Amino acid sequence: MSTAIGNTALAYARVWHLVDARGQVLGRLGTQIAQTLMGKHKPIYDPSSDCGDYVVVINAKHIAVTGRKREQKLYRHHTQFPGGLKEITFERLQEKDSEKIIEKAVSGMLPKNKLRKVRLERLMIFPEGEHPYVGNIIKRYDTKIPLVVQPIE
What we know:
Layout lengths: L15 E5 L5 H13 L15 E5 L10 H4 L1 E5 L6 E5 H7 L1 H12 L5 H7 L1 E3 L13 E3 L7 E3 L2
Parallel strand pairs: 1-2, 1-6, 2-5
Antiparallel strand pairs: 3-4, 6-7
């Protein structure tokens, strides 16, 4: 008996998911998006293969965080010059570039391997509700109950 499960194009077909980030907690939303990008929700999941789906996130400007993270959370990067460590708070980054917050959260939750960059390319983040992928969306995440996907009629 063959141990290969679903090596067909239909099994690896990529589905487009729509996620509304309005009022969602950053960490919980990031884990759900990372699982969808990796393909862990599919029965054919294999860590070494790229079988994840596309994810479109809207209303990234309105993401929520718990506690005092809005004032205290810092994002750091280095310019590769001496003394070039730069810091920016969550609040300032949300005003300046709100898409980066979700991108950094999801990036940190993906495995650190060669597939990480490829998986992040399938993540599209938009600060407001408008996006150009309306015709591609097949599933949307229900914001009331986590990890439940409902098809769009």
